[in-house]
Amino acid sequence: MDWLRQAKRNLLSARANMEYGLYEEVCFESHQAAEKALKALLQSLGIERRGHALVFLLREADKTGIIQGVPQNVRTCVLRLDKHYIPSRYPDVYDEGAPADYYSESDAEECLKCAEEVVEWVARLIKVSLQEI
User: Fold this and answer.
1) Which CATH number characterizes residue 52's domain?
2) For 92-122, what is the HEC assignment?
3) What is the domain range of residue 85?
4) Backbone angles phi, psi at 45, to 5 degrees
5) What is the DSSP secondary structure assignment for residue 22, as one 8-state letter?
6) Total structural domains in the chain?
7) pTM value > 0.90
C-alpha cells in the first residue's frame, strides 16, 4: 500500500506542477506515479523489483500469468511515460537549452492522463480505492 499511496502523492504533485506551468515536472512526476503504481502491483504479486523502466516493470507483472491481460491503453501509456524519465530532468540531454524549453502543456496533459490511467488500473487490480489511501 505504501507504493500506491506514494504514487497517489506523485499524481498530486504532477497536478500542482501543471497549475504553475512546470510541464517537464508534470511529465517526470507522472512517470514516478506510474512507476510506483507498477511496483505496488509487483509487490502485491510477491515480487520485489528495482529499476525505473515502466515497460520492464509491466512486463514482469504480465509474465506472472496472474494478470488477465494488460489493456492496450496501459501498454501505450507506459511506453509514452518511459520516454520522459530522463529528458524531463536533465539539460545535457539536449544540444541546447533545458527541459523547460522542450515541454508543452499538451505534453504534460498527455503524461498526466497516462499516469492516472496506470495508477487507476493498478488500484482496480489490487482492489483498492484511491480515495481510501
Assistant:
1) 1.20.120.330
2) HHCCCCCHHHCCCHHHHHHHHHHHHHHHHHH
3) 2-132
4) -95, 5
5) -
6) 1
7) yes
